[in-house]
Each structure stands twice: as C-alpha cells, then as structure tokens.
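With this grant's support, we have settled on a layout for protein records. One resulting record is reproduced below.
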Amino acid sequence: MSFVPIFVGQCGNQIASQFWNVLNSNEESLRGDIFLRGKSKLRSILVDSEPKVVRKCVQDAHQLGLRVDDWNIIHGNTGRGCNWALGYHGLKMDSEKNIVRDVLDSARRESERCDIFNGFLIHHSLCGGTGSGLTSRLLDELREIYDKEYIISCCVAPDIRGESPMQYLNSLLCLNTLQKTTNCCVLFRNDKLLEIVGTKNGNQIENMNFHIASCLGDMYIPNESVSYRGVKYYGSEPSELLDVVAPDPSYKFLSANTANSDVSWGDLAVRLARTLVKKDDNKKLHAAINLLPIAKGYDSKEFSKNANSIFTKLNSLFNRKRLENKYWIGKKSDRSKSLTVISNHTGIVDLLEIVEERSRTMLEAKAYLHWYEKYERDIELRFKESIENIALVRDNYNSYR
C-alpha cells in the first residue's frame, strides 16, 4: 500500500515541513514504501506558484536526512493574488503555464512506482489563490484521470474573522470542488487551531501546522490490527477510514483533533475532549455521524481494555445515534502517547453557512467579481452552481441533527 502526498501552496508546504518531523520520529512510518522510496526518498510532490516556500520545505527535509526528487519540486515565479480563478486557470507565461502538466507527470510517475497504489493525499488551504484555485484545477484533472483511486484532502479554512477580502469566494469555489472530486476531506479551521495551540510556547504558525501534521500522522501511519466480529481492521487504509466515518458521500467533511501526553488513556481522553468543538451557536450538541479514535503509544493495547469507558466519554460530547464502536491502535517508539479522534459531525454547518451567506452578499453587490472575470468569463455560473451545491451539503448535515 502506498500513497502519493501532494502539498500545494504556502499552507500545504508548511504542513509538509512539520509532517517530515512526524514521519522521522515514528519508526512505523518508515516501514515499507508507504511514504518513502528506499530509505530516504520521499514520494511527495511539492507545488507552489512561487519558489520560496517550496525551497524552504526541501531544506527542512534535507536536515532530517530525507530527499525530494527534483521532478517533484514544482513551482512558478509569480503568485496567484489570492484569486481562485487566477490559480485555477494560471498565467500564460512560459514559466507558469506548465505547472499543472508537471504535477500530473509527477503524479503519474510516482503512482506507477508504487507496488500497490492507494491514491493521493492533497494538502492545501481554502483561502489563497494557489491553495484554493490551483488545488481545484489539480483535483479536477486527477479525478478525471484516476477515476477509481482514492483522493483524500486535508485543507485549512481561514479564520472566520477575515484573513483576505476574497476568502469567502475562494472557499466557496474550492469547497464545491472538494465535494465533487474527493472521497473525503479532513478540514481544519485556523480560528479553532489557534484556540488549541494559543497557550503553547514558540511560533504559533509552526505549532498549528505541527498539530495538523500530528493528526495526519496518526491517521496515515500504519496501525496494528484490531478485530471486530471476526473481521480484521488495520487502519491507514482509505477504505477503512471511509467505512467508519464517511460511508455516505453526502457527508464527507471530517474533523481531526489530537492530544499527546504520558498520562493514562482515560485522562488523555479527558484532555482531548476539551479541544473538540461540541456545540453550535445555539449551545446545542452537534450530531455526530461517527467517530474514529486512534490510540498510539508504547502501551497502545491497554487502550483496548479501556475502550468502552473512553467511548462513553466521547459519545457524551455529541448528540449521536448509537453505532458500533471502532478504533485503531498503533505503536510509538518513545514513551509518549497520542489519542486522535477523526469525527464526522454537524459542526461543519457553521462554516458552510458563513461561507454561503457572505458569498451571496458579495455576489449580490458584485464585489470583487471583476477580479475573477478577468480569468473566467462565465464565473457567475460557477458561483451559482457552487452556492447551490454547498447549500445542499449544509442541508444534508442539518437533516442529521
């Protein structure tokens, strides 16, 4: 089993730098060819419209003794101006027009080198022109070519208080593409991440990206087998992830939270519970479609003995129909423990409503519309379709309450 991770834009490449640290600190991640070819060659594709962040990401990998092939380092020389349409359609200059083609060539090359190719993991933001627009173009192209393989997105939503005047329009268009092309999307929100890591020392951006990378590491890195009614589950398989938390394509937006410590599994579950978004704006519990705890540590099998009490604690945080409890466990090479929960719940509705409402307001006023029309003549039709599709996703989640 092998994945081909693709990191797009400034946000995606900053996540990559922290993800290298997670991989390098976990012996299980170096087993087989899931993320590596040989002992040190990363099967990752780094993409940006400018060279600075990509080069820094490559340097970070080198410092850990890891290498990225030159053909997997793809960048232009001009940013995308926080404009989805410019990111999607690109520039016509010689240094810019081949970015999409080069990414697809690298994706083909890496997928053909896999013994068992499972699909793509694509990491990006919803806000920037590259993270939202170029990623949307790549997703459309990849889905057309690889119509049977898994595509899992990890994306970061901007702070709802505003990072860019065009963030809602960019997010709307990108969310629509994610709904149409991916099997599931693990979504992080900058404002929620800041609440979690805000009290930690050091660079807040690095802390936020490390938190994301830690969640993804627990989800991606191989786990030990756990049996349910005679069927073995190994974890880190896309089919198993979807089977547990996203079996219905109408509900594919997931959340992830993690807590790390050397305390008991029960105490770690209590710490994790404090970081989960549990109530909506009306102080009502979110309805959870399902939860997937992932316990990793030197005594991870002890988690199985405490699983029922931990599930009772987690279930109490949500308005949730009683479903069969499933979990993954795995080892860590040091004495630390981590408990990560991948959840699919109605908390996504808050974000979808904000994006939809503010996008409608801006489009009615034709705010910034001319910036998009410079690169796509019929952009209003795309906006209309996106609003309709995101409203449908919102209604589907609301019906689950």
In short: Residues 350-399 form one domain. The radius of gyration is 20 Å.
